[in-house]
Inverse folding.
């Protein structure tokens, strides 16, 4: 307390602290606002919400009146499960190969496999639509799986690649010098070590597919509607309060899944690393 | 060479999937752009000419790239201080802050976009506050303005900046900060002369993801930006799905792809130069 703080220290603490606080409010605020809005009793979306009720969640569960939303949610889960499953298999195999093969070509291959992450998804979505249509395919969930697969694979490659590079080479040498075959070493040493990375990658791929917009925008149709596209339609037209209820449900599910994955795979550390 | 091929074997299935569902569609996109008519019967550069010789289209390109840069600046302005606070926090608070940073990433982009409609709308949170405090006589127009769009994109894209930034923040040696302070540098000087050069690679990696995501965020752009703000993604959408003019849509999509990739390459290069200078000097 006796020490006097210079003007620089005080201004640093105030400005950096203030901006960081603003960042936190901007990050969390919208999530809380959506949650609060979804429990409104009124027919319009406004904040603060009027009254408290579960009516919009009840309407959302109504099988007849919310059938299009249910179908879109079903399609989304179906596509996400397949795309994430395939991405986890193919991505893990590719990450293993890339970790083994060093040199320039491995780096080029890595950059190539990661490129969908920074490439404008919308350009790829349009390209996929033209490609599949000109080949004579009709819109289907299988095509959506193919499109989603490409954009979610990078998540698996990154998390599995990171856990492979953290593996202690001495363990592999020890296993080999004790007479284990390469396959045995892979099964009993490498695989258990990278399992959390694979799980985290599969989870992120799944969530990315559920959230996918630019590819679904072009590849989905009335029959193969996807949840984000359906929600976009609801926001553009009537601004139905059910959008808030769907959002509330998605936030809740993401929150629970994330806590579970954090517990078992240290998810946030992997996303950072 | 042969052995290298065998080692790459497990990557083969994914490689084939990329060829069939990624490379081939992109080649198809390029091919379609060289047709002159909607039915794809006559080859010609007409659609390229139509795009390149119209100043409106160039304005849309500039607006799109500027929107991306504004989103990058806004996320850095708020994300960097948050990362600095995170670095100094206790392990418990580091976990909490990391969770908060990642959480929005797992709540759908559409949900986040929807949240901003509730916040920025005529009867939204911001206007309730502004009117309640008597700061304005009538509701502010925030939806359907670029300011509103940039504010929303700041939240929507911030996690993409924070993740790589936090990972370099976690790695650098805290002794450097003490050394800088004990040599009499003010915190600001330490920030600009020590911290920023050290975290530059992480900052660039994050900025790159934010830029790529903000420039292609069609739903946020169309719902929050509204019909009067035109960016390349909405032009692609309009031409492809409403006018059914595939060749022209393909031209716009390629312009989007090339212009965004060019800016990304520059950001990546800047990050590598900044990182190389620091780490080269230390070695």
């Amino acid at each position: 307390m006796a020490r006097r703080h210079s003007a620089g220290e005080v201004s640093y603490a105030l400005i950096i602290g203030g901006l960081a606080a603003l960042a936190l409010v901007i990050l969390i605020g919208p999530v809380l606002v959506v949650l609060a809005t979804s429990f409104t009793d009124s027919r319009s979306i406004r904040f603060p919400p009027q009254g408290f009720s579960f009516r919009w969640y009840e309407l959302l569960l109504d099988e007849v009146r919310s059938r299009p939303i249910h179908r879109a949610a079903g399609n989304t889960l179906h596509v996400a499960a397949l795309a994430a499953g395939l991405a986890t298999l193919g991505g893990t195999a590719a990450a293993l190969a890339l970790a083994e093969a060093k040199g320039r070509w491995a780096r080029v291959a890595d950059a190539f496999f990661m490129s969908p992450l920074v490439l404008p998804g919308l350009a790829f979505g349009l390209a996929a639509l033209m490609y599949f249509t000109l080949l004579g395919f009709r819109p289907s969930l299988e095509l959506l799986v193919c499109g989603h697969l490409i954009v979610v694979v990078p998540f698996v490659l990154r998390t599995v690649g990171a856990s492979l590079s953290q593996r202690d080479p001495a363990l592999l040498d020890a296993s080999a010098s004790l007479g284990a075959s390469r396959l045995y070493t892979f099964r009993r040493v490498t695989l258990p070590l990278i399992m959390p990375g694979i799980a985290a990658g599969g989870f992120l791929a799944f969530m990315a597919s559920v959230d996918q917009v630019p590819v679904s925008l072009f590849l989905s149709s009335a029959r193969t509607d996807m949840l984000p596209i359906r929600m976009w339609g609801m926001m553009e037209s009537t601004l139905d309060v059910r959008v808030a209820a769907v959002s509330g449900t998605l936030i809740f599910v993401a929150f629970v899944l994330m806590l579970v994955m954090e517990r078992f795979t240290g998810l946030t550390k992997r996303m950072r690393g | 060479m042969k052995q290298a091929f065998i080692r790459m074997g497990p990557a083969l299935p994914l490689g084939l999937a990329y060829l069939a569902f990624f490379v081939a569609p992109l080649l198809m996109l390029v091919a379609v752009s060289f047709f002159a008519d909607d039915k794809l019967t006559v080859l010609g550069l007409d659609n390229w000419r139509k795009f390149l010789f119209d100043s409106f289209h160039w304005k849309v390109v500039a607006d799109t790239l500027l929107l991306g840069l504004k989103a990058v600046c806004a996320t850095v302005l708020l994300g960097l201080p948050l990362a600095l606070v995170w670095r100094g926090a206790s392990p418990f608070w580091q976990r909490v802050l990391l969770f908060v940073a990642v959480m929005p990433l797992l709540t759908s982009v559409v949900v986040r976009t929807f949240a901003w409609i509730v916040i920025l709308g005529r009867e939204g949170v911001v206007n309730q506050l502004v009117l309640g405090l008597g700061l304005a006589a009538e509701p502010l127009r925030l939806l359907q303005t670029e300011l509103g769009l940039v504010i929303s994109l700041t939240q929507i894209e911030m996690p993409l900046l924070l993740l790589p930034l936090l990972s370099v923040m976690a790695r650098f040696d805290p002794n450097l900060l003490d050394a800088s302070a004990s040599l009499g540098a003010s915190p600001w000087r330490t920030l600009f002369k020590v911290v920023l050069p050290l975290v530059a690679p992480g900052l660039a990696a994050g900025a790159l993801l934010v830029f790529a995501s903000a420039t292609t965020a069609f739903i946020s752009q169309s719902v929050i930006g509204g019909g009067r703000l035109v960016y390349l993604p909405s032009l692609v959408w309009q031409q492809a799905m409403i006018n059914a003019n595939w060749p022209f849509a393909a031209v716009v999509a390629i312009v989007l792809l090339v212009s965004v990739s060019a800016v990304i390459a520059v950001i990546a290069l800047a990050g590598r130069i900044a990182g190389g200078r620091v780490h080269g000097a230390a070695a």
Notes: Chain B has one domain: 32-282. Residues 246-282 of chain B form the longest helix (37 residues).
